[in-house]
Design a protein that fits this description.
By secondary structure, the chain is mostly beta strands. It is built from 1 helix and 11 strands, in the order E-E-E-E-E-E-E-E-E-H-E-E. The strands form 2 sheets. Strands 2, 4, 5, 6, 9, 10 and 11 form a 7-stranded mixed sheet that branches. It has a 4-stranded antiparallel sheet with strand order 1-3-8-7, with no helix packed on it. The longest helix is centred in the C-terminal third of the chain and has 9 residues, at 101-109.
């Protein structure tokens, strides 16, 4: 299984950015997908999650109201649309994929990802920098 994020970059405060998460070796629709971010000196935190099957999204406080997670089954790609970005959104953004419900719980509740970083399928991350 390979997971790869893309779409990061430099954006001004108030701007928007859409990240992509492509996967090979598995079917995204059959799995839970979580978007996480990690800022320097901080723990990795979930910002958006989507269930397997019917694709119900959930947003922890960090992503609520400004972030939208979606999934394109034909492209086997997940997306994270981010609007009204602030400097606090500066971080490396990661996509995690797993068929187990624990990924949804970790993503939705802010539980530490440290013990799962070798068990979920993670991408290498993409840097998002919000700066004027």
């Amino acid at each position: 299984v390979q997971v790869a994020e893309s779409g990061g970059g430099l954006v001004q405060p108030g701007g928007s950015l859409t990240l992509s998460c492509t996967a090979s070796g598995l079917i995204l629709e059959d799995n839970i997908i979580g978007w996480f971010r990690q800022a320097p000196g901080k723990e990795r935190e979930g910002v958006a999650c989507i269930s397997s099957g019917n694709g119900i999204p959930y947003y922890p406080n960090s992503g609520k109201g400004r972030f939208t997670i979606s999934r394109d089954s034909a492209q086997n790609t997940a997306y994270l649309q981010m609007n009204n970005l602030t400097r606090d959104d500066t971080a490396i953004y990661y996509c995690a994929i797993d068929h187990r419900a624990i990924l949804f719980r970790v993503c939705a509740t802010g539980q530490s990802t440290a013990q799962f970083e070798s068990s979920f399928h993670w991408g290498q991350g993409t840097q998002v920098t919000v700066s004027s």
